[in-house]
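Glutathione S-transferase
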Amino acid sequence: MKLLGRLTSINVRKAMWTARLIGLDLDREDWGAGFRSPQEPEYLALNPNGLIPVLIDGDFALWESNSICRYLAAKAGATALLPAEPQARATVEQWMDWQAGELNNSWRVAFMALVRGQPATPEAVAASVAGWNRHMRMLDQQLDKTGAYVCGERFTLADIVLGLSAQRWKNAPIERVELLAVEAWLLQLSERPGFAEFVGNGMP
């Protein structure tokens, strides 16, 4: 299997970290800013959105990073990361979908302005920072309730995707609220194989 996308992308890194944790040697090819453009016809034939990453498994191409993580776990039979029991699996996928939708949308303006240098008004940035902190507080409350990982006592795909998001929040040049459960959880995650390479590597 091959993953198309540059390693500086948080979405590429979540797939690479998943692969490392399930013991999969996933080849990676650089696409995106600074490399080959995902707007090239060859790439658009795989992903019409023109976004990274794309996973290629034989003649099968899959886009959307959280779907790629699910696919890798399911193909490897990694039920510890993606449970087979319907309610447990739905809870993991619920938090993954929340990460991709609600949480990502909250930080987009602030991150793109403060880190990527895209234009935005101070008011828009301030509103985005407030929303980002509010959503991270929701994550903190969940972790405080479980006392361990996002979905309970077991480390799952939800911890992988949200771990990368939480690390981005922690490194962002913003005023952050104090979230003790998130800090303790990130410390736990840092002991996992691949964390230093794909999460705690200083990349935004």
